[in-house]
Amino acid sequence: MEVTSIQDGIIIDHIPAGRALSVIHFLGLDPTRTRMALIMNTRSERYGSKDIIKIEQEATFQLDILGFVAPQASINIVKAGKIVSKRTPGRPLSLVNVIRCSNPRCVTTVEGGIDQGFHLDTTGGQPGVYRCDYCDEEAELS
Amino acid sequence: MGDLRGSSLVTLDDMRLEHIRSLIQRAAYIDGHRQQVAKTCAGRVLATLFYEPSTRTRLSFETAMLRLGGQVVGFAGAQLSSASKGETISDTLKVVSNYADLVAIRHPKEGAARVAAQAASVPVINAGDGGHMHPTQTLADLATIQARLGRLSDLTVGLCGDLTFGRTVHSLVTTLARFGGIRFVLISPDELRCPQYVLDRIDAAPTCSYLCTRDLTSVIGDLDVLYMTRVQQERFFNEDDYLRLRDTYILDEAKLSGARQHLAVLHPLPRVNEIAVEVDSDPRAAYFQQVKEGMLVRMALEAALLGDPLPGYEDEMEEN
Predict the structure, then answer these.
(1) Cβ within 8 Å, pair B109-A111
(2) Per the database record, which ranges form the Aspartate/ornithine carbamoyltransferase carbamoyl-P binding domain (chain B) (predicted)?
(3) Which of B94, B137, B78, B162 minimizes the C-alpha distance to B293?
């Protein structure tokens, strides 16, 4: 399989295999309007298998969310066909209206008009887990 | 203590240890100066919004305000509130903030007290939000331990029974771990062990440690505090399992015979049969004192959140 390189944009590499579609969802990318390549379940020397997303546009979306959905990913910024910077996503301290709490006993299931907030809890050690601001239930990646 | 004026209590995790210590100290002062503090909150109104009935907790909050000279309004049961018409918690709190100076809320949904505190323009106290938090129960537990043993650290604390679903256990463990110097002995059947996130809290406290065991008799002699909990029948799918586990931890005089003389036996109540009635007359039984300490510490909390000073308290602190 051959996917051409991009000229200006972002390559999100080392996404856990099978999670690229979730990444697209959480980044808020519209697949019908975004010029991008999606590579899933390809070989990875580091992890065995991985997904890759190549996006031919400037990063106007919140890349921090990758710290939640794909913390092991690497973000490569491409300009004029060359990678000019490379970094791993940080773990955001909070997530607001990104995911919903899955706890059926949580107040967010009955109370409309409030933010769906999660915070990073590192009590059990790094890298930590995200917990609901209201009920402390651990976040689930749907 | 002025820092607490106007603030809400949703979880003790948000409260500094110095404020917890101060509340317990104030509760002890109130106990010895009932007449002097009887008008501390005169003219104040407490609203108790109990979306699910909890008669003893509600009475404790209301008695506390009445003993401070304030008054109370409220409801017990969602069918008696506008929630039955579909009103949100936020809207109810925005309305009630115009009536009352302070709100105590109990709600079956976890996190409801945080929603209430965000919406209200007056201080809100979490009187229990589902199986999540019940911070004033923990304050009552701490006040009882302080009254009995004179300290909240350098203790061996046993917690026995349902350690999986018992919110009072989780809150007490995580708060005591912040005080430090606690050896926790976690006594439960395998099916009802303490959840990992609570154990992580103990591990994160450098001067605390824990031991998990199924056998109460073999460890009771090491304990300064024994916190008994009810094995909750509604958690079991199999009636036989419930009966077997429930009967494992009946604390009676025979088991207590191996305990230290200064042991304090606590229980958040109600009990079913995990503490035999014969233990009530044992000087180590502290669970009815716990009820009194709960009211006193709620008095201290209500006055503190309202910013109403306890008459004579500051003077006595200066003298000491």
Answers:
(1) yes
(2) 9-146
(3) B137
Alpha carbon distance B217, B172 (integer Å): 22
User: How far does Cα A123 stand from its chain's mean position?
Assistant: 22
Q: How far apart are the first and last CA of chain B?
A: 17
Helices (H), chain B: 17-32, 55-67, 89-96, 112-119, 135-149, 167-179, 196-204, 239-248, 253-256, 287-306, 313-319
Please state whether beta strands A48-55 and A82-87 pair in parallel, antiparallel, or not at all (unpaired): unpaired
Please, which residues have CB within 8 angstroms of residue B149's CB and are 6 or more apart in sequence? B155, B224, B225, B262, B264
> How many percent of chain B have pLDDT more than 70?
98
How far, CA to CA in Å, does B104 sit from each of A58, B80, B308, B309? 50, 16, 17, 20
> What span, in angstroms and rounded, lies between the C-alpha atoms of B204 and B267?
26
Tens of pLDDT, residues B219-254: 999 999 999 998 877 667 778 878 777 777 899 999
Q: Which two tokens stand for residue B47?
A: 């609203």
Output the pLDDT for position B285: 98
User: Residue A112 and residue B111: Cβ atoms within 8 Å?
Assistant: no
CA distances from B221 to B181, B189, B256 (A): 19, 19, 9
B positions 229-288 inside 8 Å of A (CB) = none
A82-105 mean pLDDT: 93
Please state the pTM of the whole predicted model.
0.91
- Which residues in chain B have Cβ-Cβ distances shorter than 8 Å to A116? none
Extract the tokens encoding B190. Answer: 């395998």
Residue with the bigger pLDDT between B307 and A26: it is: B307
